[in-house]
Amino acid sequence: MIRFQLLAEDGAARRGRLETPHGAFDTPVFMPVGTVGSVKALSPRDLTDLGARMILGNTYHLYLRPGHERVRRLGGLHRFISWGGSMLTDSGGFQVYSLQGTRREGAAPLVRIAEEGVTFRSHLDGSRHFFSPESTMRVQFDLGADVIMAFDECPPSKAERSYHEQSLARTQRWLVRCRDTWLEAEPPYGERPALFGIAQGGLFPDLRRRAIEEAAALDLPGYALGGYAVGEEPAEMWEGVSRHAPELPREKPRYLMGVGTPEDLLAGIGAGIDMFDCVLPTRTARNGLLFTTRGRLNVKNARFAEDEGPADPGCSCYTCRTFSRAYLRHIFRAGEILALHLNTVHNVHHYLRLMEGAREAIEQGRFEPFRRERLESYGRGLDG
Q: Among residues 10, 152, 264, 277, which one is catalytic?
């Protein structure tokens, strides 16, 4: 299981320590996303050297390929991917529901939602599959993560209130079924994973509060806010997170799922969030976009063709210590695989150092000045 200890508070911002069967680390923490058991362009050794202590695996993708039963036969996900740190798996709910937006006009629906669960077609080969609260718990048990997530529906934030009410009620019923299966199932690797509940509710404060209250009544090891960054404006998300993060149980870890930019992370920390994940730093790296202490840098820009400076003069990562903007631009435009690796090293380093700075600022009682300084620096621009 896990153990969470609150070490310091600065306003709503929190510094804590999370202990799992695969190690202990301080929060707030950012978890790089290893969708299919691999953080794209990085090895487990790279992640360790960068300071990552917890990564995320995707239940939907791992269920389809290589399959949870195979992973179990091979000793669990930690052993399979040679990762000695902590790990969280999501339930696959978000990926299943995202398929609803990929259906071709005139084609059969890719997803059918019912009280029993969700029938969906694989994005790989079109084969039919079924996820229920019970089956997603068993899949995650087989994968062997330290933290597993309840199965939920993630409606678009701008969906009608009536749909959010219907979806939320079903998600809350599914949460009880997840809890019951989690308590009854036999963990294959000895330690029982920690189950986190997810509070949905869109942009409706009363629905969010209802979800949080009902989830908190189950006394689970941790809780998450889901359903943000799915269609709303950033300001709407920040307002919602600031309102509802403090309503999650104080003594349990709080997780904001799938969010986001450095600015998003600072807003979440300021609201009292402890855990974050997002594909953004790795995805943008593969597209040539780097996050720096002075804002975003697009290595494809011609202005960097003869720039001998590092991507970010304020960064100490291997990429910035070793290579120039001119070289990064050259190898990216040449299609070299090394470009994807070096860009990803930098972006993940930037996110992890942002978390480190936030933890230190909370400890010193100066998180809001730290946040303002970071936002001002981001807004100053590369030439500021």
A: 277
